[in-house]
Every structure is written in C-alpha cells, then in structure tokens.
Amino acid sequence: MSFMALLLALMLEQVRPLSEGNWAHDLLRQWSLGVRHFFDTGRKHQAMLIWALAMGVPVLGVLLVHWVLMAWLGWPFAMAWSIAVLYVTLGFRQFSHHFTDIRDALEAGEEQQARTLLAQWLQVDATTLPRHELVRHVIECSAIAAHRHVFGVMTWFSVLAAIGLGPVGAVIYRLGGELPRWWVATGMQNVSTRPEQDLALDDWAQQAWRRIDWVSARVTAVTFAIVGNFEEAIDCWRNHAQSFPDDNDGVVLAATSGAINVRLGGETLRPAQEVPDAEPPLAQPSTPGMEPHMVHLRSMVGLVWRSVVMWLVLLFLLTLSRLLG
Q1: Which of 280, 269, 281 lies closest to 124, judged by CA?
Q2: How far is CA 131 from CA 4, 25, 115, 122, in A?
Q3: Per residue in 47-61, pLDDT tens?
C-alpha cells in the first residue's frame, strides 16, 4: 500500500501541483501560530508541551482518520487517505518551478533575471553574484529542498506506514520542519520588542527539528551516493559535512557534492532585509569538486529523479515480497 500511495501521490502532484500558499498549509500555519499565541509564556519548561500540542493534534487527527477508515471501510479508503496526505506533504512542484525558471534564464543568457529569481526564492541579496556562484547556490538550495520536500517525507512515511501508522510519518516530518520556520518568521517581525526568554520555544522547535531530520538526512545522503558517484559521495560526507553550518544539511550537501562532482560551500548570501549593524555572513570551507557549471544543474535533476526511482523500486520489491511471503 505504501508503494501505490507514494506513486499515485507523486503522479497527482505532477499533474495538479499545490501552490505554495495552499489552504492545507495555511490552515496548519494558522493553527501553529494560534497555539503559540495562546500558550507561550516564554518559560523553557513549557516549550516542549507547546511544541507537542502544535504537533500532536494534527498528527493524532491524521492517525485517527487512518485507523477509522481501515477498520470500517477497508484498505482502499485508507490508501486514498494516505494519497491525500502525501499530496499535501510531498512537494516536488512546490520548489521545482524556482529551479526550472532560474535554469531557463541562465540557458537563455539572462543572468540578471536569474539573480532576481534566486533573490525572490531565498529572500536574499544576489545582485552581485557571479555566474558560477549563482549556479552553486541553486544546486545547494535544490538539494536541500528535494530532501525536505521529497526524500525526508518518503523516509518517515515509509518507516511509520510499515508499522501500521499510515501517513503519520509524512505529517510529522513536514510539520516538524515548518513549525520553527513559521514561528521564527513571525517572531522576526517584532524582534526588537521580544524579550530574551520568548526565544525558548524557537530554540526547542529547532532542536526537535534537528532530531527529526537526523535519520532522514543520512538516508537521503546514502540514496544520493548510491545513484551518483558512491565513493566520492561517501568520502565527501565523511570529510566535509562538518563544513556547513547545519549538521543535517551538511550531510546532504556533502553527499550531493561528491555524487555529481561539484564544489559546494563558500560565501553565504546576505538577507534581502538585513538587520542594521548585523555582522556580514561568514564564509565556510568549500568541498572538493569542479567549479559549478550548467552541466551540474542537469546532473542535479538526474540525481533527484534517479533517487525517486530507486525509492519506488525498493518499495515495490518490499511490497511484492510481503505479498508473496
């Protein structure tokens, strides 16, 4: 059932993709912001409970619907529910249009348009970015987006569905990643007036997300290594993952670098609306590999699609073995 649910959800998402501001994501965002508004008092010992409430209600709701459908209507209806949840949580087309538009602009020689599109995507200042650095940032952002919108969701969904929890894993992963982003974005609007203790919930949400993403980031890295240059990907993972600010993102980016033989890391981008008197972004060490070029954008697309095919084949074989066994 996991194989069919994932396959049909991916096909549906390709035919009729959800927009970035879709009603389901907006509903969850309003729920999370409401929970914070009514329950957050800034005390550290309450942060875990508030996070658990914001996560727990949607997760339990999805799980209860899955169990009710399985018990009363049978597996076809439960699979339809899984497809619906995956359709909302999976997101190839929620980020791929940014990649495609920037790639098309670069292929047409419109570098300034590509810089503008990258700035709009990441909310950064990219006005003076040279071409090879522009390509590098597109590859890095695409690798992380593919991990968070596709492979991380697939990992958590597959594992928890195998023990009878239906599509709960997909909700845990995507909501776990969105909560800190939504809460931090809201807090930044009035950062000058926020008391220091009000950051306790932000810190807890970030820590919880790092724990949720720890296993899935390494699964994505292994997947990229298998379908790419295995030895280089593993070597780059072992020796250069720590060069990136975030441990989990570093694992994915280092594996990506080795898998397609491209240099990643280096100068970071300034936010489009930088806080006054903020320190300039720190440069980070680069991974080994070729200077980023357009060919690496095509390699990135191939890496992602080969990884998707590998996942689907693996789930098909596991499903077939269960049916035959």
Answers
A1: 269
A2: 41, 34, 9, 17
A3: 999 999 999 999 999
In the beta sheet, which residues pair with residue 290? 262
The pLDDT tens digits for 218-274 are 999 999 999 999 999 999 999 999 989 899 999 999 999 999 999 998 878 777 665
Q: Say how far apart CA 175 and CA 209 lie, in whole Å.
A: 9
CA-wise closest residue to 168 among 56, 91, 75: 56
- CA 34 – CA 13 distance, rounded (Å): 29
Q: CA 29, 35, 39 angle in degrees (round to 5)?
A: 155
Residue with tokens 């209600």: 57
This prediction's pTM: 0.91
Helix segments in the chain, DSSP class H: 2-15, 23-39, 44-72, 75-89, 92-107, 111-122, 131-146, 152-162, 168-188, 200-227, 230-240, 247-260, 294-324
More confident residue, 110 or 283: 110
Compute the distance between CA of residue 168 and CA of residue 157 in angstroms, rounded to an integer. Answer: 7
Residue 155 structure tokens: 């990992």
Nearest partner of 206 among 185, 181, 188, 186, judged by Cα: 181
* pLDDT-above-70 percentage for the chain: 92
Indicate the residue type of 147.
H
Token couple for 320:
């077939």
Q: Please count the other Cβ atoms lying within 10 Å of the Cβ belonging to residue 33.
A: 16
Mapped onto helix, strand or coil, the DSSP state of residue 106 is: helix
**The one-letter amino acid at 282:** L
Question: Domain limits of the chain?
Answer: 2-188+197-269+283-324
User: At 165, phi and psi to the nearest 5?
Assistant: -100, 10
Largest CA distance in the chain: 65
> In the numeric block, which tokens belong to residue 291?
């200077």
